[in-house]
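Reopening this one. Same input as before:
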Amino acid sequence: MLPRLPLDDRTYAEIVQQSRRLIPKRVPEWTDENAHDPGITFIELFAWLTEMQRYFIGRVPEKNKRRFLDLLGVTPADASSSRAVIQFSNVNQPLTLPRGTKLMAEDQMFETEASIALTPLALDRIVTRTEREANDVTATNDHANVAFYAFGKDAKAASKLYLSFDRELEAQEQVTINIKLQETGADSHQDSEQTLAVNRSAISPSARLSWKAYCLDDVTGAEGWMPVEIIEDETLHLTLSGKLTFRLKSRMRSVTVHPASEQARNWICATVEEAGYEMPPRIRQLMLHTVAAKQKNTLSEMIECPVKGELNEEIQIETYLAVFGQIRVQVRDADGAWQYWQEAASFDALPQMDRPPNIYTVIRHESLDRVTIRFSDGSSGAIPPPGETVRVLASEPDFDLYRQIGRSSGLPSQTFELYHLSCKKRDALRLQVGELEPQGIYKWQDWTRVDDFDRSKPGDLHFVYDPVKRLIHFGNGERGAIPAAGLDTNIMLTACELGGGDRGNVKPHLISEWVNDTQRAFHIKVDNPGFASGGAEAETLPITLQRAQAELKHTFRAVTNEDYETLARATPGAAVARVHAIPLFKPGLADYPRETAAGQISVVVVPYGLTDTPTPSAGFLQTVKRHLDTRRLVTTEVHVIPPVYIKVTVNAVVVVEPQFVDEGQRLVEQLKQLLRPLDGEHGAKGWAFGRSVYKGDIYSALSMGSGVVYIQDLWIDAEGPHVRKSAGGDIILPPHGLVFSGQHEIELISRTHL
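Same output, byte for byte:
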């Protein structure tokens, strides 16, 4: 019995009738609709073909659809875990939290993605200063939804941002500040933590900052503002949100800074050395002691550790599972197989043997930030061979209950079920299969997860994991190898990660609990100031098909003018407000379009800005050009240039009805709306690039004013490079020109006074 499938329910007769009803509308000259007409015969033929095609399309199974997607290079997206920024406070003593520290948000577990060193330090005051004003914005920083300008609205050179701490920083003390900026332009509605990661090396900052601290000069003994050592600046001079890590060269000293001058404080200062911001940076929040966290629960992790093969060699492991969990060590032999070594309490108590045993010791530090794995001197224990031959397996203490998957029977197409592990991600598991050696020990081989066995060869160590059914499948010997038969359990998990899905997208301030009692005893407060985002369930096949159709329409390469404009707008790290591509044009071309530049194209970009004529900086232009260069045709030379702004001033004498004689300013506003370079609200478009300003445009705009009878006199003036005036008084713009309004002069005359 055929399964019930979603078929098109239109019958052959209905398709014919629908087609015949369209004849009067589409082909009105067709009057003979009888059966003997050849056109009717063709309608019936194509209706039959349509019905058969829809019938068979409706019976394409999901397996075939997945193969079709595979030919396009599209696979259903796996479940993803949400991410959030975690902030720690109430730090009373220095403490380092290892990577993978577990935190809870109600029933969702998060793990830190990096180690973090916490010290007793807090931001005390925040002050912004320009040549006109100075503001204390400390209270504003405490409210993450209220942004403030770091260097004022103009962000001119010599503008400053002061940050003070609640204690003096020592020389060589390293501090990291998380700077969260207000996004601008098309992404202004998105949180900066939710934006996709960008290649920061491809972004050229628009301005340049310098960071200094008020310190004591150890050489001269004088106090003053001294440069700090910038270790890492993810913000790219406050262009993007990110972390700023710095270190002082000398011990900090306190000083008073207006308007927070009631007492001396410990300050660092950021100064605008080279202005050029298209949009002045607005800070939403400055935070200390922050780290990124991911919604997951790692039960077992596998850490590759290269060794040199030296005597008494040590390995430092700085992860949560290594510090608080169980540790196993594997060493790879010459055949590429892995063998478990045994942990020993000490090398001293071991007897001398002809063949040194495969042992190691684990040293757990009181700092609770790392563990040390030590190998012997070669006499009391073996030394691992040099290279990437040592692997550390760190797991939860009770993971041994779930590590054992089963015993291979040596038969093809074996399937094993994970009864107690709800792994949502296809790559959440890594496993090994052991083969018993004549010496009575198991040697273990890594097996690789694949989506299916279609590309697997008979000897490939592949397996397939189905996260929905929690099943692990092995090959049949023709597509994928068969695990070797074992007398005991010989299929073991080496890595396992739980988590993923949209439930991890928790609200702010929910990630607030420690999982480990030892870490909880330090009484450090934990919080997520913003939303956790990015968590999603695994894609279903219909959603994957929709995504594939959308990706086929997405612009990846720059060929046409529209391609260049679309890609320029999507430049990471550059908020592009308007863009215009001019083919066969390069800067300095005198008589375009009569004179052209073969194989060249110019892309005019206008950034978002607070002024009427926002101009891109050299760094902004370089960022867009670098983005387009990776997507252009090899034979095309791309120029990214700023617009040429032309100031247009209208002088007009307008006859109006008597009651509208004082409405001149309203007509001026209409002209400003017409002659503007940027797009306006509600879909209003700005002036087109290179479009001439005709008197007819001005006549039309003025005539739309209330009470206008007629325009008695009109003339237009223009100022700007490469602009000229026609014999009729129209303004001819260069191809990369944009207009903006000057001081329009509109004289209104009452109709009754003529």
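So the earlier flakiness isn't reproducible anymore. For the record, The chain has 13 helices and 43 strands.
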